Amino acid sequence: MATKTDWPTLPSLSYEDSLYVCVHRSLSGSEAGRVKIDELRGIGKTFLDFAYAAALAEPLPVGTQLEMRHEARDIPEATTPIKLDIESSYWPFINKCVQRYCWRDARVVPAGIDWSNPQETRVIFETLVGVLASDEMRHDEVLKWIKALVNAASTTHARCP
User: What's the confidence (pLDDT) of residue 103?
Assistant: First the structure.
């Protein structure tokens, strides 16, 4: 079973940045706050799409689920379309990360919002990545973190510690 240390440490967030991630956009006190959250999510989605694809393009450690999928399909790794792995594994990856870090437990949502649905789960993760990636000085750190998440997600079970 995976332990908390099997997962990369979450890059640090300021208190203000953690509010962007943990408070549902509909609870933002102003239109400017909602626009800022939407902007961060857009940055996060773009950055995450790129970083996830880049992480999948690199060889993973021997014995990971991704490597086993290549073997099971009997397709040479050099000719395996990355797009197949992205489409089949992107949502499970996001869901596993959100579950593993217990972000749903920390999220403040209004009544009537099902924060466990896939769309809300993506919002949490994309907003977090957007907050981190909005600082250009942190791009390398965030890329390395996402790569480490891809590796961890492919070898461990998602469970809150």
Answer: 77
Output the DSSP codes for 105-161: HH-B--TT--TTSHHHHHHHHHHHHHHHHTSGGGHHHHHHHHHHHHHHHHHS-----
The span from the CA of 37 to the CA of 14, in Å, is 15
pTM over 0.85: no
Q: Does the domain at residues 18-155 carry the CATH identifier 2.60.40?
A: no
In this structure, how many other beta carbons lie within 10 angstroms of the beta carbon of residue 64?
Answer: 17
* Residue 68: predicted pLDDT: 38
- 51: nearest Cα among 145, 137, 127: 145
Q: Is the pLDDT of residue 40 over 70?
A: yes
CA nearest 125: which of 156, 90, 151, 155? 90
